[in-house]
Amino acid sequence: MSDITRCSRLAALAVTVTVCAAAAGLAPAAQAAVPATTPAPTHAAVRAMDRAVQAATGTADRLTPNAPAAAGRVCLFVAPTAVGALGHAGWAVMDRSGQWYSGATETTSAKGFNGNWLRGPENVNSMLGHFKDQRRNNDPYTQFRCKNTSSGSPAGAVTKFKGLMGTDYNWLTNNCLTRSVATLRAYSSAMNGLKSGVSVAPNTYYTVYLSYAGWESSIPLR
Description:
By secondary structure, the protein is α+β, with helices and mostly antiparallel strands. The chain has a six-stranded antiparallel sheet, with helices on both faces. Strand 2 and strand 3 form a beta hairpin. Helix 5 runs antiparallel to helix 6. The chain is globular, with a radius of gyration of 17 Å.
């Protein structure tokens, strides 16, 4: 049996076990996931960012989601200890002036802004600060990964997320992760290759799927 076949069968078995555990009341069915078997690659680009660009945003002394010469940029934030350590996700996108739009679905409560939030435009410090404060006392966001795009439409992202807030939450198919991914896809066609996030734990998606998609390495949110 090849290594690829063996890994595929183990992944399928892990999903089956998780789903069965959920059906028995031992774990939430919505978070059934493929196990994280592939480590995230190291990307040096984010650590070599132009300090002049960082200084212009008031964040010259630490790594930020900003990057030089980027027509567009997307980020996915994760709260790794949420939902029994399966994770929770939020999103952010940048416009051409370096301003940011961000949002997340925090609960399964009613439609609209009850259980969701949407912000922007704002500078990078304000955006990062909101993610740090949003869940400070309850499984906080602690890290994020980003990727440059050749173009981007914040308006498209915002419109998509607002539309998703009007739909019914579903553990498997319409949750914090799937809404984040759909929003990133609406921002740029460069994100169309992203997996939907259906039936995948946010931590697995963040660690494994974004690595396959060539995203930069994880940055601590501090």
